[in-house]
Amino acid sequence: MNTKKSQSVGNSAGNNTGNNAGNSTGSELVRDYLATVEREASALPAERRQELVADLAEHIEIALAERPGGSDREILRELGDPRTIAATALQESGFGPGVLPGAGAVTGAGVREAPGRRSPAWLVVLLPVLAFGLGYLWVPLGFALKVAGAVVLFRSRHWTKSQKWTGFGLTTLAPSLMNVAWFLFSYPNDPSQTEYWTAIVAVAVVTVAGAGWLWRVRSDANAGQRQ
Predict the structure, then answer these.
(1) 41 compared with 227, residue with greater pLDDT
(2) Is the pLDDT of residue 187 over 80?
(3) What is the separation of C-alpha 107 from the centre of its chain, rounded to a whole number of angstroms?
(4) Which residues contact 226 (CB under 8 A, 6 or more apart)?
(5) Gap between the Cα atoms of 227 and 218, Å rounded
(6) What does the alpha-carbon distance between residue 123 and residue 128 come to, in Å, rounded to a whole number?
(7) Taking the chain, what is the end-to-end CA distance rounded to the nearest angstrom?
(8) Strands 112-113, 105-106: parallel, antiparallel or unpaired by DSSP?
(9) Which residues lie below 8 Å from residue 202, measured CB to CB, with a gap of 6+?
(10) What CA–CA distance (Å, rounded) separates 48 from 227?
(11) Distance CA 215, CA 76 (A)
């Protein structure tokens, strides 16, 4: 569990419940709640589980800061049953047998998101490569494929948040900026065929390298079940 953030939440809970009847158990309630979520979500990969607990801890800490007159018990009640949250996270990540009615993934803002199907890793990796190749035949198609690739990447369970942003930068953002730079600075100066194909190859190398990196660092959605 994210120890520093959990300790911060516990301290915040103790400070903010000083005017409440439950001030003696405030931090303990928060710690028990987060510990239950972590325990019930033990089938998740460690990094994903820590991210879930850290998001919940951050939400609790913010809520306590924004409502000094409220109690941590009320905030935890608003978040919902920790077992439901864990079951939802397991289902959303492909590890759980099902989701309790009305459950959804909890984000850092405390908003529940309905679980949905996730695209396979190979599709996430293939889309930016297709966007590069087909984009030169028809620009709108390439743009549509880039958007689709970004959406499925950020919805995927095969990469961490930081890996998703890195992959997006390598497969979509960097190639797009290279194309923009080409049309703004090189194309108006009537470039030679050598310069033209050099630019295309450079974009291709960045795109394929980014897709290859995503494929290498992907995580197996079933790894947690085999551990």
Answers:
(1) 41
(2) no
(3) 9
(4) none
(5) 17
(6) 9
(7) 18
(8) antiparallel
(9) 178
(10) 15
(11) 38
Question: How far is the C-alpha of 170 from the C-alpha of 110, rounded, in Å?
Answer: 31
Q: Are 125 and 164 in contact (CB under 8 A)?
A: no
pLDDT at residue 139, as a whole number: 82
What is d(CA 18, CA 29) in angstroms, rounded to the nearest whole number?
14
**Any residues with CB less than 8 A from the CB of 36 and at least 6 apart, and which?**
82, 83, 86
The residue with tokens 């990094």 is 47
Distance CA 77, CA 6 (A): 18
Note whether 101 and 116 are within 8 A (CB): no
What would the two tokens of residue 158 be?
A: 């095969």
Q: Which two tokens stand for residue 15?
A: 């400070």
Nearest residue to 221 (alpha-carbon basis) of 159, 177, 163: 159
Q: Which residues pair with 106 in a beta bridge?
A: 112
The model's pTM: 0.47
Q: Which residue has the tokens 């905030």?
A: 75
Written as six digits, the tokens of 36 are 């239950």
